[in-house]
# Entry
Amino acid sequence: MKIFNLHSMRLILIVGALFFLVGFANHRQKSKPITSLQVEFTDASKLFITEVEIEQILKDMMVANGDSLMDEKRLASVENTLDANEMIKSSEAYYSLDGKLSAKIIQREPIARIKDKDFYYLDSEGHPMPLSKNYSSRVPMVYGVRPKDLKEVYPLLMKIQGDDFFKKHIIAIRKESKNHYVLSVRDREFLVNFGQISYLDKKLTNYKVFYSKALEYNKLDDYKRIDLQFGNQVVCTIK
# Structure
């Protein structure tokens, strides 16, 4: 009985010591101050917001909170603050045992520059996005649309964004009248009468086939207007 009690007491002491050490380690980790910052972009080739700007957001947040201690609630607060920035789509914050606070940033992706009273972007989720002082995105200009028209033109912009040829080729979209759009293309004098935002795949495929054939026969400079609005055919107007 005494031997059993002795072994039991040793086991209890060992388990208790383990819990104490784990709890102490967690406490030290949670109360450990931030010693450095690190910012990581998923796409660093187009920086609409810079590493320095994000670091300043984090520093301002720590000053506002009155300390620089790390814990899980603070990480969630960091992510919420970063996600509220108009240039950021989403963020992930985490910290390491050496006290480094890291922020992984996914930026918003512009697909068009809209000309209304002022200029602004439309992003890949169909939401308005302000211009950046750090980087100007090479996307089509869109004229003659009001905020309520953005949902209408958005599917066409996404088709352009998802196709390497059209992303380089189409430089502007203008709404000329109700449900009627005209496209301007790079390095060519003709306009493309697109008509309504409908039958997108058919119209764009027809245009790509026409363009390839006309380029092959050196005929692209002969036209002043290319009409796609009839869907099943491409109608060309000679200069």
Notes: The two ends are 109 Å apart (CA to CA). The longest helix spans residues 2-30.
